[in-house]
Amino acid sequence: MTTDDLIHAADSALRTLFATPRSARPLPWVRAQDMAAPLTAEEKRLSGALMRVNHVGEVCAQALYTGQALGCKDPALRPLLNAACREETDHLAWTAERLAQLDDRPSLLNPLWYAGAFAMGLAASTLGGDRVSLGFVVETERQVEAHLDGHLNQLPANDLASRAIVQHMKTDEVAHARMAERAGAVALPLPVRGLMKLAAKVMTTVAHRV
Ligand SMILES: [Fe+2]
Ligand SMILES: [Fe+2]
To answer: 10 Å Cβ neighbour count for 15?
Structure first.
């Protein structure tokens, strides 16, 4: 772990928490007439709460991948983690933009979520090693995929803009899990997977409101 790595990690944290994220890929395409589909106040509130949860998930994704890249031992692995992290930056930008379109706000607890996820990512790679860290990516991305499927069921049927974003993110998360599998991930023990689910449940429940 070099000084450059530490500076990169600090820069990533500050950009995630305080800068306006920029996506390399445009917001998933939605036809103008679909964007205009009116949402009731109640639908808008629900979409806002769900997209805030997804935005928190993407804050955590930045933190996890940054922590894991920092503790990663194989130099060949770091570019793979960084490439996935760049796609997560698109997700962060898309969810932030959609939240603003819905006149809603990000979670007030984002610094806390970031710190917790960064510590988990760093611990997975420094304590577990690269293959365990990759197993952590696989399990995280699978849980996120299931979570996004749940949101596709919960989002208002006429909120096509949020749906397009969630669907596109889901496709990327599946690809991230495959990347980690191909790179040599080991399966995590059941209790660890259970703990990860519990942590995600706490985060999604709180972020729905705060
Ligand atoms: Fe993501
Ligand atoms: Fe991902």
So the answer is: 15
With left for phi above 0 and alpha for psi between -120 and 50, is residue 79 left, alpha or beta? alpha
User: What is the CA(45)–ligand 1 centre distance, in A?
Assistant: 22
Which ligand neighbours the alpha carbon of 58 most closely? 1
pTM (2 d.p.): 0.90
Tokens in use for 92? 């962060």
Q: How would you label 48-63 residue by residue, b for 16+ Cβ within 10 Å and e otherwise?
A: bebbbbbbbbbbbbbb
**Ligand nearest to the Cα of 21, by number:** 1
Gap between the Cα atoms of 91 and 105, Å rounded: 16
Q: Which of 32-46, 121-135, 183-197 has the lowest mean pLDDT?
A: 32-46
Ligand closest in space to the Cα of 177 = 2
Write the burial class of residue 167 (CB in 10 Å: 0-12 exposed, 13-18 middle, 19+ buried). Answer: middle
